Structure formats: structure tokens, C-alpha cells
Amino acid sequence: MRHQVSGRHLGRTSAHRKALRRNLAASLFEHGTISTTIEKAKFVRPFAEKLITLARKGSLHARRRAIALLQDRDICKQENGEPVKVGSVIKKLFDEIAPRFADRPGGYTRIIRLPLRRIGDNGKLAILQLVDEQLTTPAPAARERKPAVSEPAAPAAEQPETAALPGEEESEGTQEQAGQQEPIAADEEKPQAQDSDSDTNQEETKEQKE
Asked: Which pLDDT score is estimated for 77?
């Protein structure tokens, strides 16, 4: 049973794994990108990002700690067929790489899978590289205002009836009452006319009798 043996062993001893991790991280800091297998890239990526976070502090203690973990290595170039020292990995890490990621909260590297396979063991290949672009928060896009569409003119609204004044309400009320009383008066005059007709008829009958 594999108890307490988590992690990638890569078929190597602990000393060999440490040396492999240091060499891959140093090559990454020197060249900015390396090509290796996917398992090795995943193995060295956390170690490289921790070193960059340590280098962002920039203190003397952080520099000594990075040298203890990574082992400083010279960066050389060929001039006239002879190697010439132009710097060191620790110096480049603290002076160039750490300031570039000063405002980035982690995620300094990326892994890009390749469609190629390694000749021999047919291992999957990948590219491990430093992220070059700086972290910038995108500004919110300005909304474009649409031109106002001219709507047809609405028909003129009917004017509301003005409220009648208290005096006008009383006059209207009296006119309505007068209109209601007029037919009553006409009805009262009808029986009076009938009474007058009956009186004339009675007088005529009396005269005939006499």
C-alpha cells in the first residue's frame, strides 16, 4: 500500500528529483520558456512560482533563501568561441522577473500542451513558460446610446371639465327645481279650467229650465 508517498516520483530518487527541479527552474528563469514532459512541467511549476513570490520581497533574507533553494547559476554567452559570464539566475530573478510580477497575485507561469510526442518513450510534451503580459483589470466598456426615435405626435387630450364654483352650483340647482315645478303648475291649472267649464254648463241648464 502506498501510504504517505504522495507526489510525483518520476522514477527517480529524492536527490535526483531535487537536482532535476533546480535545473528546470533555473533554465526557466534564464530562458523564459522550456520544453519538457507534462509530468515534469507540473512537478517544477509550483517550485518556480514559490521562488518568484519569494523574490518579490526583495530583502537580503529572501535572496539568501532563494540561493539555498535554487543554487545560483551563472548565465553565460558565447563570444569569440569562449563563454563569457553576463549575470546569474538569482540576479535575473530578483532584478528582472520579480518586478515584472509585482502586481500579479500568483499565476506567473503557464503550461501549453504540444501535439508532439517524445521519440523513445512516446511521452507527452509541453511548454512551460513565464507569463509575459501584465495583469490589468479591463475597464468597463462604455455603453453606446441609441439615437432617439421620433414618435408620432399624440392627439390633443380633451380638456377636463372645470369644476363649477359654489355659486354656479346653486343657480343650476334652482333652475332644475324650477323646471320640475313648471309641469306641476300646468297640471294644477287644468282642474281649474275644468271647474270653470262645469260652472258655465250649470248656468246654461238653469236658464233653459226657466
From this structure: 86
